[in-house]
Design goal:
This protein is mainly β. The chain has 1 helix and 24 strands. An 8-stranded mixed beta barrel has the order 2-3-4-10-8-7-5-11. It is globular.
Length: about 290
């Protein structure tokens, strides 16, 4: 479990080349990772999983962030002592940001094939670098302790799904991310009226094609046309306060992409009518019209 993982946008890359919709299966009983392409097993890798069965979560989780040479606590990326090895594939578990559980390398190759980790899935360093070059952000990862029969039986609704079309940016400036989660990194921004080719969806995110065969993700809420009295949270977590100043009581915290309807504008704050009929205020610096 990589609670101390530090991710740097300087080492983050958007998906490249034509996106292939891979799937990953991890069997905790056999400590094997199966990589599927077009419904067939493309390759099998040995891995290490949790020391006890409860440490590595089971279910289907999207791969939301990829990183080269992740830092661990005070150990820099690329250091032979770094337990995360040369690559990190972060999984979104329970709505987190892909910074706790992941598929990564190791500085303890003897642990591969064993139940040895604190929750993450370890791979041999050469294997994890190979996997990094193959799979894209949005890939669904199915983790279980049952039998493997060369059939991917994870939750088909999780992870990147093919969906063609176009999207047009309705707002002044919208962030595009390397993966379908704000635990990934901002790769670029697009201005209002920009039209992009849509190639897939992953949960509340839309995958779009950029130039040079690169891909990025936009949260769906930022593709909704703005109403006159509508604002949308444009930071990781924003405070709704009791008064229009930053020293007043925090009434609520709202996540990136939350759409809010405001009643009035007061100085540098929007006045909101909350569900319990109380009045709250949110700073203009945390939202986008």
């Amino acid at each position: 479990m990589a609670t101390w993982l530090t991710l740097s946008p300087n080492n983050s890359y958007a998906a490249q080349d034509e996106p292939i919709y891979y799937q990953i299966e991890i069997n905790k009983e056999t400590n094997k990772l199966y990589l599927y392409a077009d419904g067939k097993v493309k390759k099998t890798y040995p891995v290490a999983t949790g020391r006890s069965n409860d440490l590595t979560p089971e279910g289907t989780f999207p791969l939301v962030v990829k990183i080269v040479d992740p830092k661990w606590k005070d150990t820099p990326g690329g250091d032979p002592k770094n337990p995360l090895g040369p690559r990190w594939h972060g999984l979104e578990v329970n709505g987190d940001r892909g910074r706790t559980y992941g598929i990564h390398g190791t500085n303890d190759p003897d642990s591969i094939g064993k139940h040895a980790s604190s929750g993450c899935v370890r791979m041999n360093n050469e294997d994890v670098k190979e996997l990094y070059q193959i799979v894209n952000e949005g890939t669904p990862v199915w983790i279980h302790s049952g039998k493997s029969d060369n059939h991917w039986r994870g939750n088909a609704s999780v992870g990147l799904q093919k969906e063609a079309g176009t999207v047009t940016i309705p707002r002044t400036k919208v962030k595009l991310w390397t993966g379908p989660n704000i635990g990934s990194f901002i790769t670029t921004t697009k201005n209002k009226s920009t039209t992009l080719e849509k190639t897939g969806i992953s949960g509340n995110w839309v995958q779009v094609k950029l130039g040079n065969n690169k891909y990025a993700f936009i949260q769906k809420n930022f593709l909704i046309s703005a109403e006159k009295s509508t604002i949308i949270v444009d930071v990781d977590l924003a405070n709704i306060r009791s008064e229009p100043n930053t020293s007043s009581t925090v009434l609520q915290k709202v996540k990136y992409g939350t759409i809010l309807t405001y009643k009035d504008v007061q100085d540098d704050f929007y006045q909101l009518q909350l569900k319990n009929q109380t009045t709250g205020y949110i700073s203009k610096t945390t939202v986008q019209e």
